[in-house]
Write a structure and sequence with these properties.
The chain is α+β, with helices and mostly antiparallel strands. The protein has a nine-stranded mixed sheet. About 25% of the residues lie in helices and about 25% in strands. The N and C termini lie far apart (about 45 Å). It has two domains: about 70 residues, 434 Repressor (Amino-terminal Domain), CATH 1.10.260.40; about 130 residues, Umud Fragment, subunit A (Ribbon), CATH 2.10.109.10. The protein contains seven helices and nine strands; from the N terminus they run H-H-H-H-H-E-H-H-E-E-E-E-E-E-E-E. The N terminus is likely disordered.
């Protein structure tokens, strides 16, 4: 007899607890990752009292580097028979360092976007993704010079203070930590390297925002 998805046992609560502990993350950190109101909202997932929506489920699977089906239906802690990670390679458009200025001017031009090179990564993005080449030491030590970051596109309402983002304006492309002054519609761009002073701009000057999701060191 073939079991339907509805009939399969779900291990989601146990997996979320196990993987969070394995990553060394707190309930508060996981709640912040998913933009939940507080740690009790995330604990409800681990207790089986609530279910994440599909967007949050995809984000969790990406964060823990497991396939969605494994996250839901496999007892990951005791699963020894096969490799859990999804080895499928996913193509992502890459904006090289030298092309960053051109991308800032032409991000809305579909013909320009099609000319960008692609790279393959072993992670499934939970939304629209871009790869950006990083030049400079302003975000060290978190994001070293020469690496490639994978960004997932978000809207301004999803920005979390003090997280790292790739910000696209008509002036260029920058990777920075962000703090938002919603009252005055100002975005502060802050370098991790304290040798670089913060800058700011109007939220109206921002064309695209990409949340830094993965850092590729090779």
């Amino acid at each position: 007899m073939v079991l339907s998805r509805k009939e399969k046992q779900s291990y989601l609560p146990e997996n979320l607890f196990f993987l969070r502990k394995q990553k060394g993350k707190t309930l508060e950190e996981m709640a912040e990752l998913l933009s939940l109101k507080g740690k009790s909202s995330y604990k409800a997932y681990e207790d089986g009292r609530a279910l994440p929506d599909i967007h949050k489920l995809l984000k969790l699977a990406s964060f823990f580097d497991v396939a969605v089906a494994d996250l839901v239906y496999q007892d990951i802690e005791n699963f020894k028979d096969k490799k859990i990670e999804d080895q499928t390679l996913f193509e992502v458009l890459k904006v090289p360092v030298k092309a960053a200025a051109g991308y800032a001017r032409s991000f809305g031009d579909s013909s320009y976007i099609k000319r960008l090179e692609t790279i393959k990564i072993p992670y499934k993005p939970y939304g629209i993704a871009r790869a950006f080449g990083i030049s400079g030491d302003s975000m060290e030590p978190e994001i070293p010079n020469g690496v490639t970051v994978i960004g997932v596109k978000i809207n301004s309402r999803e920005i979390r203070d003090n997280q790292s983002y790739v910000v696209v304006t008509t002036e260029g492309v920058q990777c920075k930590k962000i703090r938002v002054d919603k009252k005055n519609s100002i975005i502060y761009l802050i370098s991790r390297n304290e040798n670089y002073p913060p800058t700011h701009m109007s939220t109206n000057d921002v064309s695209e925002i990409w949340e830094v999701w993965k850092i590729l060191y090779t």
